Amino acid sequence: MNRIPFPPMKYPLIAILRGLKPSETEGVVDALIESGFTAIEIPLNSPEPFKSIETAVKMAPDGCLIGAGTVLTVEDVNRLADVGGRLMVSPNVEPDVISTAAAKGMVTMPGVFTPTEALAAASAGATGLKFFPASVLGPAGIQAIRAVLPAELEIAAVGGVSEKNFADYAAIGLRSFGLGSSLYKMGMAADEVRARAKTTLEAYDAVYGAGQ
């Protein structure tokens, strides 16, 4: 099994840019990277997503993790590799998708909700797990499932997570998150994204301590 490790990050936060257009990519991605984000996901149900991902990959400095969300097929994985993406996020557990992405050196974060799904994703070689929707499971639900999972898996809470509830997840030792509408909504200007990113990272530092 080829499990690609999750890279060390000061802020293990994935910015989810659902609905981003290619013409907006440079400004929004620059605002996020400049603020301190180093992981960016552009879901494939966005307009011309591979074009946006390719732009983001080319402009991002070394050490940034750029890729796609809502990856459903092996074909999607191959196209993602063609544009240089290194992060594969899916809403489900499809072993062929996970193993193909891992074989191409991608960090893989499939979406799970139950112990069965979580363990299946782990068996397929996933880097980590995206517990979604976290707002339904809650910290207690994630903690209960986490108890039976391999310790090396990166665990992220996604869905209904914002800077307002970092502390709830910190209480169970969780520090990785996927952030969507609290950070970016379709059509949002780069300056507003920059302001939201600043607020988010300040809140993260307040809970987890600056300089991690």
Quick synopsis:
Helix content is 42%, strand content 17%. By secondary structure, it is an alpha/beta fold.
Please tag this protein with its features.
single chain; 212 residues; alpha/beta; 8-stranded parallel β-barrel; 8 helices; 8 strands; 42% helix; 17% strand; globular
Structural class: alpha/beta
First and last CA, distance: 30 Å
Q: Main sheet?
A: 8 strands, parallel, barrel
Helix content: 40-55%
The pLDDT mean sits at: 96
Q: Which shape, going by the Cα principal axes?
A: globular
Structure report:
The chain is an alpha/beta fold and 212 residues long. It is 42% helix and 17% strand. The protein has 8 helices and 8 strands; from the N terminus they run E-H-E-H-E-H-E-H-E-H-E-H-E-H-E-H. An 8-stranded parallel beta barrel has the order 1-2-3-4-5-6-7-8, surrounded by 4 helices. The radius of gyration is 16 Å and the shape is globular.
